[in-house]
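In the design runs reported in the main text, the only information available to the sequence generator was the tokenized backbone. The following block is the verbatim input for one such run; it is reproduced so that readers can re-run the procedure and compare outputs position by position.
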């Protein structure tokens, strides 16, 4: 299959139900350690807007680069999909991501993603919510407790 045929074959990919979404996201992060987005990228709009705690990205090419950086940075990455809820064109995914960095212990990040689906059935916007530093710091002996005490004192 040439590139034109592949594009034609993937251009009609749409997210239509909760089970498809759960299956796609589970497959993305549970592929023998390294995440693989190749099967899910066709579901993203070319003008995807992505934002999380550390970055804001516009366009599918920048989004692909972000996924490649995450793959390179992590030794092992797994995701447990807790629940998926879809209402009209909004999808919420609650997840638990276990990430092993090359030099640090494994950390579990608890978070959720809000997807906005456009009229073509593609992901036009993805907003990820998680406490990156708190969840990572929890796994560093002594430091995790100090961080939580500080957060509680200042913000709790």
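Verbatim output:
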């Amino acid at each position: 299959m040439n590139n034109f045929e592949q594009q034609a074959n993937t251009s009609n990919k749409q997210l239509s139900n909760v089970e498809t979404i759960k299956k796609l996201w589970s497959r993305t992060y549970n592929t023998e350690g390294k995440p693989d987005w190749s099967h899910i990228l066709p579901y993203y709009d070319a003008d995807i807007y992505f934002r999380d705690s550390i970055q804001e990205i516009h366009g599918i090419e920048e989004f692909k680069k972000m996924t490649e950086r995450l793959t390179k940075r992590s030794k092992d990455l797994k995701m447990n999909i807790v629940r998926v809820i879809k209402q009209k064109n909004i999808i919420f995914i609650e997840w638990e991501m276990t990430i092993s960095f090359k030099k640090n212990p494994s950390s579990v990040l608890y978070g959720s993603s809000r997807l906005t689906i456009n009229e073509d059935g593609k992901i036009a916007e993805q907003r990820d919510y998680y406490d990156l530093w708190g969840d990572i710091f929890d796994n560093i002996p002594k430091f995790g407790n100090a961080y939580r005490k500080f957060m509680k004192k200042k913000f709790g």
